[in-house]
Design a protein that fits this description.
The protein has 210 residues and is of the alpha/beta class. It contains 7 helices and 8 strands; from the N terminus they run H-H-E-E-E-H-E-H-E-H-E-H-E-E-H. It has helices at residues 3-18, 23-41, 65-77, 94-107, 138-146, 170-177, 198-206; strands at 44-48, 53-55, 59-61, 80-83, 124-130, 155-162, 182-183, 187-190. Strands 1, 4, 5, 6, 7 and 8 form a 6-stranded parallel beta sheet that branches. The chain has a two-stranded antiparallel ribbon with strand order 2-3. Helix 1 packs antiparallel against helix 2 (23-41).
Length: 210
């Protein structure tokens, strides 16, 4: 079964389960069955970096735009998550942050992140983040470099949140970072739309093709 069929099956199961029983029972059953469906056909993972705090167009937010999209993907497909976390940018106002991001990109810096994940368990990996200066934040490239050989023969699905950059160079950079992986067409959504954009994410997932 291809990735489109897997995701369609998971979304269909989510809808059918939610319609039966009371809300609490439906939620418990959905979580269990979603995971079973995804695991049966190949486990999926959402790897993402998301910046809370001061963001362009949405102001000071407690939950970053990309995390909201990652949570939608997890809810709709049953995928697991690994968040790329660094405290380097904590508490920074938007303009100084973007200036720092530009310097990091120019110098090819690779900031450290916390923890790690075993990618061998997963057949499909969603990779998402905001667009900073034409591509993903440099801390994501730290992850890419560490796992460059871990996704050969697997499917990578890029996504971005942005305020006008779309996918920028993110898909090409993922293709370069993970040679031998099957990198699909990416998905982008405006950061200021994500809080009401679950339907857009669901539509994208239903139309993913291998």
């Amino acid at each position: 079964m291809n990735i489109k069929s897997i995701i369609t099956a998971a979304v269909a199961l989510l809808v059918s389960t939610a319609c039966s029983g009371n809300a609490k029972q439906g939620t418990e059953q959905t979580t269990s069955n979603e995971t079973t469906v995804m695991a049966k056909e190949g486990k999926s993972l959402v790897v993402f970096f998301s910046h809370a705090g001061d963001n362009y167009a949405v102001g000071n937010i407690e939950v970053g735009n990309t995390k909201i999209v990652a949570d939608y993907i997890t809810e709709l497909t049953g995928a697991e998550q690994f968040e790329i976390v660094t405290h380097k940018y904590d508490g920074m106002a938007y303009n100084p942050l973007i200036k720092l991001a530009q310097e990091e990109a120019r110098n090819g810096e690779l900031p450290e992140y916390e923890g790690d994940v075993d990618l061998s368990k997963y057949d499909t990996v969603f990779i998402g983040g905001p667009v900073w200066w034409g591509t993903y934040p440099q801390v994501m490239f730290t992850f890419f470099k560490k796992h460059a050989n871990d996704l050969k023969g697997k499917t990578i699905i890029p996504f971005t949140t942005h305020e006008g950059s779309g996918l920028a160079n993110c898909v090409e950079d993922v293709e370069e970072a993970f040679p031998g992986a099957n990198v699909t067409k990416g998905f982008s959504i405006y950061g200021h739309e994500v809080r009401s954009g679950k339907a857009k994410v669901e539509k994208w997932l239903k139309n993913i093709e291998d």
